[in-house]
Design a protein that fits this description.
- Helix content is about 45%, strand content about 15%.
- By secondary structure, the chain is an alpha+beta fold.
- The strands form 2 sheets. The protein has a two-stranded antiparallel ribbon with strand order 1-2. It has a two-stranded antiparallel sheet with strand order 3-4.
- The longest helix has 14 residues.
- The radius of gyration is 22 Å and the shape is elongated.
- It starts with a helix and ends with a strand.
């Protein structure tokens, strides 16, 4: 497992690899963050193998959490839940609120 850990760390970008320490108490949460933030399939496969060897209680943490909306199960994709702020060119201008009355625009 130690070799697998260092192989994961070698394949990561330097800014993500510097935070991983094998003696860290929160290694599982750091590895989960690496798993969901990485687009590299090799890193994701290595992290899955690491969690499988660590045990079932660790491997279950990689599975997406299930949410329910009106009785229907929705799988949560953690990669898309991270907030991404997109700067729009016209976002700094205050917009006038449009008002409608019975389908007609009221000014």
């Amino acid at each position: 497992m130690v070799n697998l850990f260092f192989e994961i760390k070698r394949n990561l970008p330097p800014e993500l690899g510097d935070d991983l320490k094998i003696s860290s108490a929160d290694l599982s949460s750091a590895m989960i963050n690496v798993y969901w933030s990485s687009d590299d399939n090799m890193v994701r496969t290595l992290v899955e193998a690491f969690f499988r060897r660590a045990g079932d209680e660790w491997y279950v943490q990689l599975q997406p959490k299930k949410r329910y909306y009106r009785g229907v199960e929705i799988a949560e994709n953690r990669a898309h839940t991270q907030s991404k702020s997109i700067a729009r060119p016209d976002s700094d201008k205050p917009k006038a609120k449009k008002r409608f009355y019975r389908g007609a625009l009221v000014e």
